[in-house]
Design brief:
DNA-dir_RNA_pol_bsu_external_1; alpha+beta; DNA-directed RNA polymerase activity; DNA-dir_RNA_pol_bsu_ext_1_sf
Length: about 60
């Protein structure tokens, strides 16, 4: 987590750190990346980056 945060995170215009997340639509992981602050993260379900995906790109666990 620390390496990912240091590599891919950004600081928004208010000085808060934002982490990148890929969106899931209808159970399928998309290539769209959104950045969320800790405050915004609390409003969403977040899966681990290494969660298993099936052949169609859907979460399998």
């Amino acid at each position: 987590m620390i390496n990912s945060l240091a590599t891919f995170a950004r600081v928004n215009k208010y000085g808060f750190i934002e982490s990148p997340y890929r969106k899931i639509i209808d159970g399928k992981v998309t290539t769209e990346v959104i950045y969320l602050s800790a405050m915004e993260e609390s409003k969403h379900y977040v899966a681990q980056a290494n969660s298993s995906l099936d052949a169609e790109g859907r979460l399998s666990e």
